Amino acid sequence: MTKKSKTNTKQRIMDTAVDLFNKDGVQSITSRHIAKEMGISYGNLDYHFKNKEVLLLAIYKQMRAEMSDSYKAADPATGSFDQIHRLLLHLESFQYKFRFFNLDVLEISRSYPKINRLLKNTLRIRKQQMSDLFKRAIEDGYFIKSTEAHIEQLLLSIRIIITFWLSQEELLSNSKSKKNSSGMSDNIWKLLFPYMTEKGQLLFQELVDGSRG
């Protein structure tokens, strides 16, 4: 088996696992389910990923890498406020692509120590990156100066929304209130809107109109 075919097989296993995890949850899916879905032997899958923790760790590392670019410092020409807007939109689409992770995050972190450690490290990094991004937006005049004193609480509130957004959606899946609810990024912006300067509010409206158009 060539190196390229090994890589392709590993990625196919990861992609199939994500599809099954999204559909039925992490705890309901075994390696044998994944192998059967792919039409390969269990031994072939075990050759690439010896257990579920190794597989989930590989998927999480892929998730982590995929989000990294959106958190990195923006090109000065792009602007801090626009980066926040794009980051929130990416986070929302990311939620649905890997919906299983936030729905099962507590079970995953309790069951798989290596993922738990990497997740905690990632959350620390993301918190600092988002804090730096908000401070840039304050310096750029998009948020009022006093926002800096509330950054810790705002970041906590944003993290809670991100972590539990899909859970509350599932709970409201048969509820009329879901039909009237806005998306995750919209709700985060509602949280941030009172802290915006007039300059920030005007740019926010432009960005929202542009993304809807």
Q: How are the SSEs placed, and which strands pair?
A:
Elements: H1 3-24, H2 31-38, H3 42-48, H4 52-71, H5 80-97, H6 99-103, H7 105-111, H8 113-139, H9 151-171, H10 176-179, H11 184-192, H12 198-212
Helix pairs in contact: 1-2, 2-3, 4-8, 5-8, 7-8, 9-11
Describe the 3D structure.
The structure is a single chain. With 213 residues, this protein is mainly α. The chain is 77% helix and 0% strand. The chain has twelve helices and no strands. α1 crosses α2 (31-38) and α4 (52-71) runs parallel beside α8 (113-139). The longest helix is centred in the middle third of the chain and has 27 residues, at 113-139. The protein is elongated, with a radius of gyration of 20 Å. The termini are far apart.
Summary, kept brief:
The protein is mainly α and 213 residues long. It has twelve helices and no strands.
Per DSSP, what share of the residues sits in E-state strands of 2 or more residues? under 5%
User: Which structural class is indicated by helix and strand composition?
Assistant: mainly alpha
Order of helices and strands: HHHHHHHHHHHH
Largest sheet: none
